[in-house]
Amino acid sequence: MRAPIGDFTDARPAPDCLDLLTEPVAAAVRAWQGDVPAEQLLYVDTDPEIADTAAFVEHHGADLLDRSANCVVVAGKRGGESTLAACLVLSRTRVDVNGVVRRQLGARKASFAPMDSATGESGMEYGGITPIGLPAGWPLLVDAAVVDTEWVLIGSGRRRGKLIVPGKAFTTLPGAVVVDGLGVATG
């Protein structure tokens, strides 16, 4: 099947590709509930060498910047306690870590989580972290612009492969909070 966005000619329902996903992502797809059927979560095979946004968009087209989202892991700190959370913003924006994220988490300080924490705690590969299958209890901050996008390209938990998901599906993920202004323009 042809993907609803991008130049991908072999999109397959994610429930048919569980062996290509990391265990946390596969478990989340198996347990999927909500208004969007699991069959609408689509898997597309991609080259792991171009998993990072800039290289990916250069190869597959700049129009994907408005239709893809980055999921980054942040650490909020207050009183010696650290809380990990994930943030999902459109790829053409960056996460407002020191403003919106810090306030949303009630943290005194917020920063991007170290790579080993992000990958170790999530069970996902660097460059492939996705909001689907995050650890229980993690807040998931989702920029309202992502929810308003019809189809969104996100990581699959691995550097190889991506998921294409209806934007409205992110509102039903565990711990999801839709936040206006989470993603700010780059430049």
UniProtKB/TrEMBL annotation:
UniProt GO molecular function: aminoacyl-tRNA deacylase activity
Record SUPFAM superfamilies: YbaK/ProRS associated domain
Annotated YbaK/aminoacyl-tRNA synthetase-associated domain residues: 48-169
Species: Streptomyces niveus
Protein name (Swiss-Prot/TrEMBL): YbaK/aminoacyl-tRNA synthetase-associated domain-containing protein
Lineage, uppermost ranks: Bacteria, Bacillati, Actinomycetota, Actinomycetes, Kitasatosporales
Residues making up the signal peptide according to the UniProt record: none
